[in-house]
Amino acid sequence: MPTISKSPWMMHYDGSSCNGCDIEVLACLTPLYDIERFGVINTGDPRQADILLITGGVNYHNESVVKQIYEQMPTPKVVVAVGICACSGGVFKDCYNIKGGVDTTIPVDIYVPGCAARPESIIDGVLQAVELLARKQTEAESATAAEGEAQ
Amino acid sequence: MVYLLRVLCMLAFVVLAPFVGGLLSGLDRKLSARMQGRIGPHVLQPFYDLYKLLQKQILVVNRYQVMLLLSFLVMVVGTGALFFGGFDLLLVFFVLTTASMFFVLAATVTNSPYAELGAQRELIQMLSYEPMILLTAVGFFMANGSFKGVDAFTADLPAIVKLPGVFIGLVFVLTIKLRKSPFDLSTSHHAHQELVKGVTTEFSGALMGVVELAHLYETVFLLGLVSLFFISSAWWSIPLALAGALLVWFIEVLIDNTSARVKWNQMLSSAWIITAVLGGGNLLVLEIIRMLS
Ligand code: SF4
Fold first, then answer.
1. Which domain holds residue A130?
2. What is the CATH number of the domain that holds A35?
3. Exposure string over B263-292, b if 16+ CB within 10 A, otherwise e
4. Prediction pTM value
5. Which of A39, A145, B76, B238 is most buried, by CB atoms within 10 Å?
6. Mean of pLDDT values over B33-59
């Protein structure tokens, strides 16, 4: 049974967001939306995170940071891009310093559109990420099982 | 007969403590959520977390990490087993200190700046609570005439009657040991953190699982220590001890939810002042009474 879906720990990184989406992500933790009821913990540590949630696009300055955070996370992991800036660059797309959406730097699994993305849609995105995590874990397990049989 | 019972208590601790600790931790999160007006996670959430962590990929930063963390776990389990076996309290506390040292070492070998800063704070935390823990052992000696936990069961009166100051002092430093606000400086379960994850920053997957498991054992041991204050030769002291430990646990959750983190020097000075005034004062009064009678 995939165990990860009951305990998805999330890490939030602010790329080049205008802070609008960040506030909405934090709103998910408040009593009104309470994302912790799904077992989600907002951790600050990539080593312990299962979901990487990025708001805002990637710029040339933090490109390496985004890559490093992604690499520091143990597998299975899922990336959620929150807000239209994180999805495609949004209103900042043509800025001289903006590289584009998060998928220009690391593979993104779930796109949550909106400017700013509503807490409801962020929670929806996170829950889809949880399903995907469970699928990735099962796939990894069956892959190792198949490997074991082949040997 | 007594020996058999002591061995059974030790075994019961080793087997049951993770379940009791996990349930308490789940209730803690639920209660905290309710205090904040939230629904909160499932009561069994700590078990889900632990199960997931133990299955997740480990990214080993330094290979000594694994050995040190496993030693930490063994030492913590040993502390609790010795305590519930009714052994010498001084021995119990020295094993506990050794466990903390392994934990700090496991963080420092990673060379991560966050883990190192967290480890330094952990050392300051140890500096803050150690004097009170030692005074507790001395207090039990003065109250029951023996350092052995098992001798509390032959005392006429619960130790808290003679040691109210030591008890309050211990509850105060328990906040540090249980990693609760306002003294969760080295690492915290909450989202409000400024050191990434402090001392546990570099522990991933099953390594973090080991830390969490040790924390469950530690919680049960510490609450056991609290309940020892209520034990006497009377049968009703046992339900009283359970109720006392639960009340202290509730107070700790309440403090956790109603206070903000303090700076390390405030923690150190307040812990030492409480230790000197309440702990030291209590022992002084006991000694004076003994000399007069
Ligand atoms: S999507 Fe809108 S609210 Fe979100 S970071 Fe971009 S501009 Fe700000």
1. 9-145
2. 3.40.50.12280
3. ebeebbebbbebbeebbbebbeebeeeeee
4. 0.91
5. B76
6. 90
Predicted pLDDT of residue B167: 95
Residue A71 resides in a domain: yes
Which of A3, A41, A48 is opposite residue B204, by nearest beta carbon?
A48
All residues of chain A having their beta carbon less than 8 Å from the beta carbon of residue B36 are 31
- How many residues in chain A? 151
Distance A21 CA to ligand 1 centre (A): 5
User: Domain count of chain B?
Assistant: 1
Contact A48 B203 (CB under 8 A): yes
Q: In this structure, is residue A102 part of a structural domain?
A: yes
Domain that holds residue B267: 2-292
Give, in order, the Cα–Cα distances in Å from B55 to each of A141, B42, B179: 10, 20, 25
If one counts every other C-beta atom within 10 angstroms of the C-beta of residue B78, the result is: 19
Average pLDDT, chain B: 91
Pocket of ligand 1 (CB under 6 A): A 17-18, 20-21, 55-56, 83-85, 90-91, 115-116
Residues of A in contact with B204 (CB under 8 A): 47-48, 74
CB contact under 8 A, B205 and A74: yes
* Mean pLDDT score, A10-25: 92
How many structural domains compose chain A?
1
Nearest to B202 among A41, A47, A50 (CB): A47
| B residues 18..77 contacting A (CB < 8 A) | 29, 33, 36-42, 45, 48-49, 51-53, 55-59
Candidates B71, B234, B221; CA nearest to B157 is B234
* Inter-residue contact B198 to B121 (CB < 8 Å): yes
Q: Which two tokens stand for residue B78?
A: 């040993």
pLDDT digits 0-9 by tens, B153-165? 888 888 899 999 9
Q: What is the pLDDT of residues B54-98, one digit of tens each?
A: 888 888 888 888 999 999 999 999 999 999 998 999 999 999 999
pLDDT of residue A151: 63
Residue A4 placed within a domain:
no
- Please check the confidence at residue B197 and state whether its pLDDT lies above 90: no
Residue among B48, B55, B208 minimizing CB distance to A48: B208
